[in-house]
Specification:
With about 425 residues, the protein is of the alpha/beta class. The chain has 16 helices and 15 strands. Bound molecules: zinc ion.
Length: about 425
């Protein structure tokens, strides 16, 4: 199909195909993650990224996806290094850097063929990343892998490579980080819960409420297995790029914050998915401890899960002269700032903060804020502002930026109003 690109000969290294499991239902996805993964790969355009170290089963996962999507009327092109598994009806191009057939070169050639689905073995450089993102924004489903540890760090890596955050936010459908765990042998597994005390288990990441029912199993070894293990299963951290996640990606929030937001949007971390697999008796606690890390809470609860309020058009959010000190972040819609009965400003940029002046200066409200149309805002406790500014410089910077933008804007508006009223 791409004769000029193949060169003189096609060198395919066929690995042991019997080891490939291309049935998606058997990879180890939880029900919820399986549904999210399917939803993403069935989209007509966008990018699906699978990440993890070598030997984590990334290629296998993508092959399973491709296998599920491979029907007669769908054109699929792949660039791989090496081609590990042959699919009927799919054009697979082996990447050979020595003859200039790089991932980027293959991608460029692919776009001229206008396929529905493109699989790029790996994104390592700016050129490949850029073409992949653009393809994902122009009517192609692009699947690829990256060598990153988890979902949030994948975003940082792509931004470091040079992809603008708005393009990532606009093209990414999901990021999947994965590991392979050895599976517990079903024939010789036994209950070893008594080996652990509850404090230890909580330190590993289990919730207190889980402990009562928790049964930790491990194979003791039998003729049908190797030291209590038989086979392997994937462990997954699936970050669906929901509206809130996309917004966080676009505003380039720090990694820990993106992780928190993704968790709030339904992501299980690798550690959590591993622990779930321990609960199910599928793998051992040792295996999970050895292959995943526990992400400590990086932000306090009031910053992680602030209250969200919905306002209708004209609803009062802040009243001039009041002495409350909460501050807010606009999530959706717009708000207007009114001073002495006059509109002096408007905020419509999602993510902007407002109302922080009273907490900063310990003064009554200097303006009234009303909802313009329907709006959704997050409420933060005002008494925490000082400690937030001290402890979370990145959030502080955003608050300060919001503040400056707004001051500049209201300044312009005021001078306009003044110049209009001056001649009278
Ligand atoms: Zn066994």
């Amino acid at each position: 199909m791409l004769p000029t690109l193949f060169g003189e000969s096609v060198v395919m290294r066929l690995l042991d195909q019997s080891k490939l499991q291309v049935d998606m239902t058997k990879l180890g996805f939880s029900k919820a993650d399986f549904a999210k993964f399917n939803r993403a790969i069935e989209r007509p355009q966008g990018m699906v990224l699978v990440t993890g170290p070598t030997g984590s089963g990334k290629t296998n996962t993508l092959y399973s996806a491709i296998n599920a999507l491979n029907t007669e009327d769908v054109k699929i092109l792949t660039a791989e290094d090496p081609v590990e598994f042959n699919f009927e009806g799919i054009n697979q191009v082996p990447v050979r850097n020595e003859v200039g057939m790089t991932f980027a070169a293959a991608l460029k050639a692919f776009l001229r063929q206008d396929p529905e689905i493109i699989l790029v073995g790996e994104i390592r450089d700016m050129e490949t990343a850029e073409i992949a993102v653009k393809a994902a924004m122009t009517g192609h489903l692009v699947c690829s892998t990256l060598h990153t540890n988890d979902c949030p760090s994948t975003i940082g890596r792509l931004i470091d490579i040079g992809i603008p955050s708005y393009m990532l936010a606009g093209s990414l459908l999901l990021v999947l980080a994965q590991r392979l765990f050895r599976k517990t042998c079903e024939h010789c597994r036994e209950d070893i819960t008594a080996n652990y005390d509850s404090n230890e288990l909580i330190e590993f990441g289990f919730h207190k409420e889980e402990l009562a029912e928790l049964k930790i199993l491990r194979g003791k070894g039998c003729p049908r297995c190797t030291k209590g293990y038989k086979g392997r299963i994937g462990c997954f951290e699936l970050m669906e790029v929901t509206e809130n996640v996309a917004q966080a990606i676009q505003s380039e929030v720090p990694e820990e914050q993106l992780r928190k937001i993704a968790i709030k949007e339904g992501m299980n971390t690798l550690r959590r998915d591993g622990l779930n697999k321990v609960v199910q008796g599928v793998t051992t606690l040792e295996e999970v401890m050895a292959n995943t890390i526990l992400q400590k809470e990086a932000l306090p609860a009031y910053l992680l899960n602030p209250d969200e309020l919905i306002f209708e058009d004209g609803d009062l959010i802040i009243r001039e002269g009041n002495t409350d000190k909460n501050f807010y972040q606009l999530l959706q819609g717009a708000i207007v700032i009114i001073k002495g009965g006059r509109v002096v400003g408007e905020i419509s940029q999602p993510g902007e903060y407002f109302g922080e002046m009273s907490a900063l200066l310990n003064q009554p409200r200097v303006a009234t804020v009303k909802s313009k149309g329907k709006s959704i805002v997050k409420v933060f406790p005002g008494e925490k502002l000082e400690s937030t500014v001290k402890d979370y410089p990145d959030i502080s910077m955003r608050i300060i930026r919001s503040l400056i933008t707004r001051l500049t804007e209201s300044d312009k508006k005021l001078s306009k109003i003044l110049s209009k009223s001056a001649p009278r």
